[in-house]
Amino acid sequence: MPAPAPSAPTTAQTPTAEELLGADLHEEVVRHFAAKPGAPDASYVTHQVRECLRYLYLVSRHPDRLGGLFLPVEQDIDEIWHYLILQTREYRELCEQRLPGGHFIHHRSVSYDAYQQAPGRETAAEEALRWLPLYTAAFGPYDEEALPHWTVVRFLHEELQLSLAEIASLADGSASA
To answer: What DSSP state is assigned to residue 6?
Structure first.
């Protein structure tokens, strides 16, 4: 049985997106996505990149808990991941040398048939909520800049009207359970 995630944030030990990618690749990714027609400004894209790297960090650190789950982030984060994968040398180095798991993180698109056989509501909710305590343990509570990029967090905030503090307390409760 896996040990519960620590409830205290370990953000001092968690590298930033720029540290994980290196300054040059980080700037390249932000510049690429900010230059697209109709793109948000560079500040917003910087937060998208940050959340993509946080997603990869968690998948790397917790493959036993998070492997094989539906993507819990929005399409914009997946597109950044695709871009990183195309930088093959840098992506391999990121996965194997800079992320905590030290293993290559493969991207596998879900086939249409598999998507149609999505898990039931309870399973989907459990899988989505699995990310909350792991995220907050590594990075602290979700903030306004993270909110648009994590599907379940945005749903809890916008549809169920939970504040970010209430979402953090859900995560704390999950970590101690």
So the answer is: P
- CB atoms under 10 Å from CB of 17, counted, come to 22
pTM (2 decimals)? 0.86
Which DSSP letter does residue 150 get?
B
CA distance 133 to 31: 32
In angstroms, rounded to a whole number, what is the distance separating the alpha carbons of residues 18 and 28? 11
> What integer best gives the mean pLDDT of the chain?
87
Question: In angstroms, what CA-CA distances link 27 with 35, 39, 42, 100?
Answer: 12, 16, 10, 22
Find out whether 74 and 155 touch, Cβ atoms under 8 Å.
Answer: no
Q: What string of DSSP letters covers 52-97?
A: HHHHHHHHHH-HHHHTTPPP-B-HHHHHHHHHHHHSHHHHHHIIII
Q: Does the structure show a pLDDT above 50 at 10?
A: no
